[in-house]
Design brief:
Strand content: 5-15%
Mean pLDDT: 84
Radius of gyration: 23 Å
Shape: globular
Number of helices: 10
Oligomer: single chain
Number of strands: 8
């Protein structure tokens, strides 16, 4: 009887040990695999095997939002359509969090909430053209920078097993539940008056309120912009999410400055995920204060301009992720 009891206790300890060891072993292999993948295979990561779609968030200003355009004509939705035609067995869903007037500090402030709400695989960032004239907001630093050690926060930031769990259990995205309230859009200029400047999704609101910079303010806009973009890259790394920097289609004035900073930030930080579309639009830029088939007179891209932009993003994104084209996109 005593021997039988000892065997039962031994069996219980062995099973308990394996139950405790299994998550640690899985975490080890996930971390090792990620290191090998990023070190020896050109940083290419493919995570859409965890769910039906590769989920992408686009963050930016009115150029991402699609000012003057219907929702399906802005580059995020066109990117989704073009990609899924070219890669029907590796589909993506693109969530547009662009908001007119947004600056780089506002994106940093909303990044964590966006990740928690949508659990993306990739974030595309096109930002900077408003940094010169809008006031930066105060950004609360991540708890990972605090002196006190918080185990739960550390696990969420560093565990790939936790990341796998989030991806595997994330909720389906409902496009009709995503709404932006902005007086910058001519279609809702009157209905948005007096309402908070937000992007709303179900019970979550992303604050995009802004103020003008004082005329007498002294600041280095390019240094501030680069610092915020670097924060976005680091936040992505904290959550094991690839952050891609995008240049604007336009390349004049504030746009040219923002493009310069995006390229410089990628180079200074040895960041491999830069999608540079400047050459694509080099011969399509309109003359001063004029429009053409690709740009409105204020340099926002038209539906046709957004189609060219989305097509180029799709090509470069696939190349950087190491995903071959299955079909020829239109």
């Amino acid at each position: 009887m005593k021997i039988k009891k000892m065997r039962q206790q031994h069996k219980f300890l062995v099973i308990s040990g394996w139950l405790l060891a299994a998550p640690l072993l899985l975490e080890f292999f996930l971390q090792a695999g990620s290191y090998i993948n990023q070190t020896f295979f050109m940083h290419k990561q493919q995570t859409n095997w965890l769910s039906s779609n590769l989920r992408i968030i686009t963050m930016g200003d009115s150029n991402t939002y699609g000012l003057y355009l219907d929702k399906q004509d802005a580059y995020p939705k066109q990117l989704e359509s073009i990609w899924n035609t070219a890669h029907p067995h590796r589909p993506i869903e693109v969530i547009n969090l662009g908001y007119p007037g947004a600056n780089s500090s506002r994106l940093v402030a909303n990044f964590e909430k966006a990740v928690q709400q949508f659990q993306p695989d990739i974030v595309l960032i096109m930002i900077g053209t408003n940094d010169g004239w809008t006031a930066p907001i105060t950004i609360t630093e991540s708890t990972s920078n605090n002196a006190s050690f918080q185990p739960i926060s550390w696990i969420k930031l560093h565990s790939r097993l936790y990341r796998l769990f989030c991806l595997a259990t994330r909720q389906p995205f409902q496009d009709d539940d995503l709404t932006a309230v902005t007086t910058s859009d001519p279609k809702q200029r009157e209905t948005a008056k007096g309402r908070p400047a937000t992007i709303n999704y179900k019970n979550t609101a992303f604050d995009f309120s802004m103020n003008f910079r004082p005329v007498t303010a002294q600041f280095d806009v390019e240094a501030e912009m680069q610092k915020n973009i670097e924060r976005l890259i680091q936040l992505g790394k904290n959550h094991h999410i690839e952050v891609f920097l995008l240049t604007y289609a336009a390349d004049k004035g504030y746009y040219k400055q923002a493009n310069k900073v995006a390229i410089k930030t990628a180079a200074d930080n040895d960041h491999p995920y830069l999608i540079n579309t400047i050459n694509t639009f080099k011969d399509l830029q309109p003359s001063k204060n004029n429009s053409n088939p690709y740009f409105f007179s204020d340099l926002h891209a038209t539906a046709q301009g957004n189609q060219i932009l989305a097509n180029e993003i799709s090509k470069q994104l696939a190349s950087k992720l190491g995903i071959p084209v299955e079909n020829t996109s239109p």
